[in-house]
Amino acid sequence: MRRGRLFFLVTLFGTFVAPGAWAQTISITSIPPYAVDGFLDGVVTGVDTATHEVAVYIQIEGSGWWTKPTTGMPSVPIAPDGSWSANVATGGPASLDSRATIYCAALIQASHTPPPASGEGRIPAGLQSLDLVCGERYGRTIQFAGATWAVKESPIPVGPGSNLFSDRVEDVFVDPQGRLHLAVDQHDGSWWGVEVILLERFGYGTYLMQTESELDDLDVNLTFGAFTWDPYGDEESVPGDAHREIDFEDGRWGDAGDPTNAQFVVQPWNAPDNLHRYTLPDLSAASELTRFFTWTADRIDFVALRGHHGASGYPPGDVIDSFDYTHAPASGRYVPTPGRAGFRINLWPNNVGLGGPGPPQPAGGQRVEVVVTHFVPEPGSPQGLGAGLLLLTWLAARRRRRRCSGRARGRRLAAGPPGGRDSSRETEEAREEE
User: What predicted TM-score, i.e. pTM, was given to this entire model?
Assistant: First the structure.
């Protein structure tokens, strides 16, 4: 049974509407089910449909943004009743179109030719949009650490590392103790990486992760990562990285002789002072690790600890390493803004991505599994709570939000459709597909 989730996101662009005038808006009314070819449908209001069109872009995980229906037909007409429809599966049977996770539709003047996207990291900045709306949907999802995570899936090589990505339950699962298991394994004649994507976004704050695996001895051809990532790729204040990426990464990147085996990174990694390598100790007797970073507007502070601890009050003797990164543009250091960055965890072969011979595979030729025991976000707050209390606080807040959203949904159903959209925040709607 495959489940899909659809999210309607904030309107990114808009126009001033004078009193008494019709608002120029666009909305998405239907997205194809995950892994099924189909059409993206929607409605526009407040415009002359004869002089306006709709430009559509889709985002495929690890592949980038693509114009739909095609670069030769970069926009679709609007029917007299305001409806529009775009074929979003025009890449052929070997494409990943049906596995896109983000769909964006822009209301444009018919005289404007929308700039093409063919695997770019963002919707082209030259798009002249009167209004733009985006919807997200995913395939398989799991529940871990009190939250919903999507499982990345691709039967065609994509980034990172030009890998296939598996959503098999044998490769990505949560055990009865609530621990997340991620495994690189061989099946169907190939080795597959794995990645999970947190569907709730928090922005600035403290992000704490605990693991229970011998990551000091990770296969030399594998990378374990836990990181922020904005798939919209529109961070313009950080030269060299538009995706707001902040990383914990473990691995030797193909160099078995490297005495270091882990790193803290603020992307781009090759900028001065953005990468801090360190060495995880021998974890064969006790494999528990805690890593966290605190992200504010002007700094990011990383800490790695032996054992399982909260983000404060931990024994100084358990500190493996730390790294303080400050915003200093004059020195080439940039702290990214939150944008729409979410959190992800992955495990993947790096040998092809590093330019080595293919196919992607562990050097040892054996299944490799990493166990993540906890993930705790503390959005926009200073450090000061232990991990257990942090988790309880977050879960309580999620329960309150769900109760409130349930009551709000009931009121909306009773009152009929809302008269407008809230462009000040991201709103989650609503659909699950069996």
Answer: 0.85
